[in-house]
## 1
Amino acid sequence: MNFQWYPGHMTKAKRQMQEDIKLIDLVIELVDARIPLSSRNPDIDDLGKQKARLILMNKADLASDEQNEAWAAYFREKGFYVVKLDARTKAGMKAVNTVIMDACKEKFERDRKRGIKNRPVRAMVVGIPNVGKSTFINTYAGKACAKTGNKPGVTKGKQWIRLNKNVELLDTPGILWPKFEDQRVGLYLALIGSIKDEILNIDELSLELIAILQKHYPGLLEKRYEISKEQKPAKILMEIAKNRNCIKKGNELDYGKASALVIDEFRSGRLGKITLEFPGE
């Protein structure tokens, strides 16, 4: 499959981030825990290199526990602070504030030396579309979310949202699109639903997913769908269609329905906790 990405507002978003980044202490980057590298934009590392960095591995409940730990260690080794969470259920959210304070220790020390007391951390939440930025912000802010108005020295029109007494968020968070020269990145984004299904070949997508599951999660498909072991992906899809009664008119197997079923069960977590890419792969 060939994946295309049309970053319509990429240049504008990047320019906005370059301007805004000067005003902030901390870059909070959301990634999808199932594809922690493919759901990042590499430009963020360049844009935020002088800032404290926090990676939030969102949807960690859908990813392999073992691989969550491996990815957290991978990012920490590169100098990031890391929190695994599920912004929808609030799992892991309690840890965020503590880690933000830890990540910004140098900022607090600089403030102390300058005689500045209790200035909140100014943060920016970034990430590619569909990693859960809005859900995270809404969950983190809760009902106490209040705009604190323009601050001195801040470009007119920019608003700071007080998330709590310690953290303020720039209300024009950077949204960047992923770059992918590597088609595998496009495949992973398609599998988690970041590329519209309407423009994809769902049958081919499901065969790619089946191949990944066979390699990294042997036995999972056989157990879930009660099918024979060690077959080619197309034969597995055929057995899934039979066993799940995916039949269309004329008593023919409905591969489209079976394909959609497999992808939906992966995305919803019904296939289990699955990570698609691995550190050092």
## 2
Amino acid sequence: MAKFKRILLKLSGESLMGEKGYGIDEKRLGEYADQIKEIAAMGVQLGIVIGGGNIFRGLTGSKKGFDRVKGDQMGMLATTINALALCSALNAIGAKCKVLTAIRMEPIGEFYTKDKALDLLSQGYITIFAAGTGCPYFTTDTGSSLRGIEIEADAMFKGTRVDGIYTADPEKDPTATKYDDISYDEILNKNLKVMDLAATVMCRDNNLPIVVFNMDKVGNLKKVVAGENIGTYVHP
């Protein structure tokens, strides 16, 4: 039984690499599609944002000499490639899916509006929001917060490679301890690297709860949507 009626699911582009060093791992893509279809079948309305770090990350590119605006635009295109891949994988297993883009690129995807997104969600379409916010200098975390607020989601689910928020990066610090729940202000005050500052503040100011969990473990998405305490819950 789903605890949430409508969610915004943020997926990491880097996680799509799976065991590969670059691009999209078909096995990981298939696992994501199966899990997403499973919770859609439970009646959960799903909006999805995917990062583009498996292909190109604008901020990293700017440090290597790319113009920041051009680099971020390249990142927006990378998120669109990932969105198309996930939508195709969902369609292949019989799930209804649409891609909406923050910048016009028909016929690759329809141009995003809130009304269009809400209409698709109400019809049972898994709706993927590509190209971030459509503006440079904003991350896909901020894009996720924005879309989650716009579609009036019950919560934002941030799927990562770790099973929640820790006192430090658990992949680098073996003494790091996990939070079962934490407030937005604690995240900001302790400078925890959950999302970028703008994204966290947007969620706090608009009272959008965040659930951080390990998406790479098959079955976890269904568990967190059902309300199981396997990740970290971020609240006021």
